[in-house]
Each structure stands twice: as C-alpha cells, then as structure tokens.
Amino acid sequence: MAEPLFQQLQKLQDEFQGYPPVSSWNPDLCGDMDMIIKADGHWIHEGTEIERQPLVKLFASILKKEGEDYFLITPVEKWRIVVEDVPFLITQAAREEDGDCAQILLTTNTGDVLPLDKMHPLLLKPYGEPSQPIPYIEVRDGLEGRMSRDVYYQLIDWAEPRQPSEPPAKLCQLWLKSNGEEFLLGQY
User: Domain DUF1285, which positions (predicted)?
Assistant: First the structure.
C-alpha cells in the first residue's frame, strides 16, 4: 500500500538538498487532484487557500510540467493539478552592479532566488485582456514564473531604451543587461 502523499513529501524533503529529481520520476497517473495554482500565485486545495508557506514550498518542489499539463509527482504517485497561468510569480528583484557587469536576481513567491541569465532567460508572452506582452522567466525544468506588476515596473526602471536596428524604427525598445546577457523587456 502506497504511503499518503504528505508522508512521502516529508521523506523527500529530508532526503534531498535543493529539489528532488522529479524529471527522472515517471510513475503512472493516479488521477486529478483538486488543486489550483491561481494566476495571482495562490495555491488552492479543495476550495481553500493553502496558507502555510512551507507546505506551498514543499508542493512546489515536486511540481513537474509535461506538455501543457502540470503534476505533483513522487517516485510512486503522479497527480494532475490545474495551473491558471504559470506556477510561480516573481515578487522581488534586486540588481547588483560591479563596474560594467550587472546582475539581476529575481525571487519567486515560493522563495526561489534565480539570476536573470542564459539558464533563466526573460521571455515576453501575452497575458491578460487585452493581451499585453509581459515578462516571464524560466524558473526550472520548463516551469515558468510571471513578473508581478511591482517587479515589472522595477525592471522598466532599470532598462536601457534603444532605437531598434530594424524597421519600424519609430518604436523604442527597452533592454536589460544581466550576467553578460541582454534581454528585450518590451517596446513602445
């Protein structure tokens, strides 16, 4: 008989430093779990918000994306959940400048801190109605985070305006520099 999911999670948390190797786990689908990650970053289980942040972090550590579906996964169980947009929300940004080199660090709603770099690139994707390009970032293993409004405005403040090298030249582009890379933040 399989152990209840929560007991498995506690064992996994004790066993692994960092994140469990969910990409190597491929158990059979157990079914659909009544869990939703809302677009605003809140985790809802059976209609009630999960308010204990350590529990949210624990669930986030075993989150896996396959195609367009999201799963909570252990070595022996796999439960499909609903994600309204993306599983993470970027809630903080910090910038460190060292001479000509700048580094931007982003923090998710689950406490992950990641640099804006080649491994965690900025992606512009449509969001909302009317659809506007909003910056997202790959957090890990195909799981993305969307910038909160506050972080988005902070990034705009740090961005360098430039005229595009290709037409239409009427537009102005905003570029961010981090870890020796440049990322297009938007254009107006």
Answer: 20-86, 87-184
